[in-house]
Amino acid sequence: MTLVLGIDIGGTGSRAALGEVDDAGSAPRIIDQLTGTRIEIGSSGSTVLDVVRELVRSAAETWPDRFSEVSGIGIGATGIASLAEDPSADLAEISAEHGVPAVAAIDAVTAHLGALGGTGGAITVLGTGAIAIAHPGPDESGTWSSAWSRADGWGHLFGDRGGGAWLGRQGLELALRTHDGTDERGRALLEAASRRFGPPASWPGQFYTRNDRAGLLAEFAIDIAETARSGDAASADLLREAGREAARSAVAAARRSSREDPATGRADRTAGHPTRIALTGGVAAAGSHLVEEFRIETGHLDPNVTIVESAGGPLAGAFTLGHLGAGGKLSAQDRIIWT
Fold first, then answer.
1. Which of the 8 DSSP states describes residue 84?
2. Which CATH class is domain 118-310?
3. DSSP 137-188
4. Residue 241 CB neighbours (<10 A)
5. Do the beta carbons of residue 76 and residue 314 sit within 8 Å?
6. pLDDT tens readout for residues 123-141
7. Which of 38, 43, 123, 192 is deepest in the core (most CB within 10 A)?
8. At residue 151, what are phi and psi to the nearest 5 degrees?
9. Residue 250 clears pLDDT 60, i.e. is over it
10. Mean pLDDT of all residues in the chain?
11. What is the C-alpha end-to-end distance of the chain, expressed in Å?
12. CATH 3.30.420.40 for the 2-110+312-338 domain, yes or no
């Protein structure tokens, strides 16, 4: 067994954990963990790299004896590709300071490694944001090439379709239409949003001035799930649409990762083609409306896909990432993985 530091940073919080992995980098066992702050986004970009440095520093101070045994650091983080400077220099500094190789990836990669147990396939991650990613899987030597394909992950203003912030925004928009008297379907959502955020007139001031507005929007996804479970049709429809969006992104990422015959244009579904698809992330637990619609839409788009249950979470994937990075089994890929 090998000791690895895994770091998972999302839109609503962050954590670091010491874990043991087997020789294949899977089957992680968490020894201990600590939590950190959530990232903020402002005019200068994301604070994600500041959060990374603070978590590594806290881990070294919290577990000084065990930290000396760490063989690798695996970091999965949201916003690291599009809202932060190139993390390569920061990773080099962390590695030099602590004497441990560090590798970072967008959070979808660690979600993929955790959900599919270090094998090929495609996933959609529904957290605060939303992104789909696919990879054919490791080669015979266990090395992961720079063959990651992604869809969405464009942030809460341009995309993240089906994620928590997307759901929250859709729900609040419908609530405000009901408040304005143009659409009565959002009555339950208006009542729920008013309980959480106060009078509608105060919402613009609460949201537009926040650096972490995506996380704030995602909080309302909890209320949407609750009103759907209480029988509200509009909330259930929003969850179904989130499931459809998640399926569309997953299948799109899987198709990009396909090997196609140039003569026929048909995908070769052999030798590592990602036919396995999983739905992951906290929003995936929002209820049966979302999950069932994900299954229906996936089957409609590609009947050859097999939907599988997630084997593990992004923290498990961060352990695998750190183990693979320490063993030289990862290839860097622009805006996906940094070694």
1. S
2. alpha beta
3. ---TTSPBPS--EEEE---TTT--TTSHHHHHHHHHHHHHHHHHTS-GGGHH
4. 19
5. yes
6. 999 988 899 999 999 988 9
7. 123
8. -140, 140
9. yes
10. 89
11. 22
12. yes
